[in-house]
Amino acid sequence: MTIEINATTRKTQGTGASRRLRNTGRVPGVVYGAGDVNMIELDHNELYYKLRAEAFHASILTLVLDGKKESVQLRDFVMHPFRQQVQHIDFQRVDAKKKMHIKIPLHFLNADIAPGVKTGGGKISHVMNELDITCLPKDLPAFIEVDLAKLELGHSIHVSDLKLPKGVEAATHGTHTAEAVVATVQVPRGAVEADADAAAAAAASAASTAAAAPAAAATKGAPAAAAKAAPAAKDGKK
């Protein structure tokens, strides 16, 4: 499904002009890439609701600029610090012959039947929710599936374990490596604390028992010692 967004050429620039534009329900933006850099403006409400859709962030969009269509991808946008207002937006033109670098959402499947959850009592932890990829525009997927069906307690799924569509590669850089963790099954924190408390209680009980043993032995041996001492005292008197 093609996502279209309408825009018109912005004739005024500068901080004051952008502020006045926002006050009329419009959003300033820019389109760059192959060709000229175009200053644009868009309807705020249309843009705001499109930004709420996952696909808008990870798809090739059709920008209708002054009635002319061109393929772009969302590069950046700025929101107001505390209002639900888009302040600015950037688009980049897409070249069908060049690989693009984009973040794609991850969709997690079968978490409820993962052995680490179903029989191990663990909880799935999503370390990543999106993946950096490179591909040609024609190979761009809407999302990437992460199958958790075989994930055991204490085990993890790494970037290298993902089944990527044909023509799609993970963009490994910095800490984002092939062995970077995508998801893991962990024992719930409460269960870990309960086990630790139980172990501490058992250790304390064992220590108490060990300490009490010598005292009990000493108490038990006292009557015998007294009995041996009594005849000796009698012999002394004779």
Description of the molecule:
The protein has about 240 residues and is α+β, with helices and mostly antiparallel strands. It contains five helices and 13 strands. It has a six-stranded mixed β-barrel. Strands 10-7-9-12 form a four-stranded mixed β-sheet, with no helix packed on it. A three-stranded antiparallel β-sheet has the order 8-13-11, with no helix packed on it. A hairpin with a 6-residue loop joins β5 and β6. It starts with a strand and ends with a helix. The model has no long low-confidence stretch (mean pLDDT about 85).
Strand order of the largest sheet: 1-3-2-6-5-4
Q: Please report the number of helical segments.
A: 5
* End-to-end distance: 118 Å
Class by SSE composition:
alpha+beta
Shape: elongated
Task: Describe how the helices and strands are arranged.
Elements: E1 3-9, H1 15-23, E2 26-32, E3 38-43, H2 44-51, H3 54-57, E4 61-65, E5 68-79, E6 86-93, E7 100-109, H4 115-118, E8 123-126, E9 130-135, E10 144-147, E11 156-158, E12 169-170, E13 181-186, H5 189-237
Parallel strand pairs: 1-4, 2-6, 7-10
Antiparallel strand pairs: 1-3, 2-3, 4-5, 5-6, 7-9, 8-13, 9-12, 11-13
Brief write-up:
This protein is α+β, with helices and mostly antiparallel strands and 238 residues long.
Q: Which key terms come to mind for this protein?
A:
about 240 residues, 6-stranded mixed barrel, alpha+beta, single chain, 4-stranded mixed sheet
